[in-house]
Amino acid sequence: MTTGFIGLANYKVLFFGKIPSTQTYAHELIARRGAADHTAIVAAAQSAGRGRYRRTWVSHHGNLYVSFIFDCPQRDARLSYRVAVAIAESLISFGVPARIKWPNDIMVDGKKICGVLIEYSGNFVIVGIGVNIKSNPTVAAGYKTTRMDRYCTATVMDVLGAIMKNLDIWFRRDFIDVRARWTDLAVGLNRMVEYRGEDVELIGINENGALMLRRGAEYILGYGDEIKMK
Question: Considering the domain 2-187, what is its CATH architecture?
């Protein structure tokens, strides 16, 4: 392992050749009281990478696997939108036509290119990000993935630097701006989703980060695990 500082937005970056999971390491660092705001754990590969609901995240060499640690004394439903916009804007800066699929997928031409896992621990939030740069996994039938090198020649360090910069930008922006940009980039708006076993229409997000849904003439506010995209 090598540890050092990147002179961009004052991040402390810990680099690993291969570890089980950057996300797990971040949790362990917090538990050991060794964490600080703007820490990033980066691995060239992971042996036990994971996504939402502890799904396996295939983690071959050549892609970006990073978990950021930020100060966060209380949970904020708006955070995931800030993160998604920051990542999408980073990929767009390399000419990759990124879009956002709720809740945490970055899509290109209808295929997943990046996943996000946000978890809270003590007074911190851990933002895990995996970006397909040189390879993309083969997963369940009908679930398509892609990678950045089909669109550009960006390196892992290029993408890491862009994401760091954009996270700091979009964490500082008023949420009204984040909401507007998220809406511009979102896929699946005005389409049907599953909400508590019922089909409802996804309209957008409100000023607090809740999903705005419509069931006939009735409007509903929904959060997180209550929603399933079709």
Answer: 2-Layer Sandwich (3.30)
